[in-house]
Specification:
Structural class: mainly alpha
Distance between the termini: 31 Å
Radius of gyration: 25 Å
Helix content: over 70%
Oligomer: single chain
Number of strands: 0
Length: 377
Amino acid sequence: MPHTLWHWATPQAEAVLVTRDLGPILRFYRQIHSLSQAALGDLLGYDKTYVSMVENGRRTIDDVPSRRRIAAALCLPPHALGVTDPSDADHVAMVQFGNSTVRLAEIVRQSGHATEAVAELWPLVARLEAQVADGHAERELLTLLAGARVGLGVALGHVLPEERLVTAARWTGQGLAIARYLDDPDMCSYALRMHGNELRKAGLVGAAVDRLHEAVAVAPDDDGRASALTLLARAAGELGDGTLFDMTVRDNRALLEQVAHTSLVNPFALHEIRMRGLVATGRGDQAVRLAGEQSPATSAITPQWQVIEHVTAGRVLLLRGDRTGAADRLAVAINAARVHRLPHQLQRVVRITGRVLPALCARASQSLERLRREMAA
């Protein structure tokens, strides 16, 4: 989406639009598009002199048909010029409904139903993009579109197999592009950490670490920083950077005592991340000792994190030589991944079991193929 369609989403535009004064609005439009008064007059059907008089406040345009026509020409929703009609009311209702849909999809995804979240977000994103293409590019709608794109990418990151995870990263990246333009610290930090996490899952770990470092830096509060640090620790482990991993885990642990626990920021998630990161950074003996500790209990655990932890624990138990314990953990993971439609976790099980636990490997492969067929259908 070219940024020329986003000119009404800037803070400067908001300050102009809130006045509903047509003169400053016309001047702002000309500045953004480098138009002369004569060129703008041609667009609106007025001569240069009349445009100049409107901009200087010596003429007013108050009739509804003219304001509606000007709004359409400037790619503004009619309510921005004080005009309401049925189509504009539908637009306002769609924005309100869209915000509710994004919030509900997040709850649905975290409850273990990412497929349903995708089903909710996909048509919303399509409709929002159509609205933007039609000229509705004010800040409220673009903020909603950014959140919907990121949410869709994250949900796809749960239900797509590894070879297709770049699609999830692409959607979160498109949301990030809008967040950067809007210069909203909360939205930008959120989009950066979600995009970074999807890049990691797609195998682009170096790029993921870069995005997550930035997410930590721009986070407006400790909650956002803790969320970014959690994901950065995981990416640092997969990158094999033991120094960064240890530092990030330490910072994250310190923040756990200061922030409210969420599905991402909680002791259980950090326990799993530490186990996986220690293995990835060549410290399997420490991971084995950590696996022997009781996983921290928390009400914030989601089904996805439970599956992830079972897979990681199974891997560590195999390092310890405990095939029976590993098989028990991985069997639970297979069943749960099948129920919650998590192909990426099934692929992890296949890699971990291989020739060591061939029966479980075959079972995970069969579950993965069933999921692939269902997704294809």
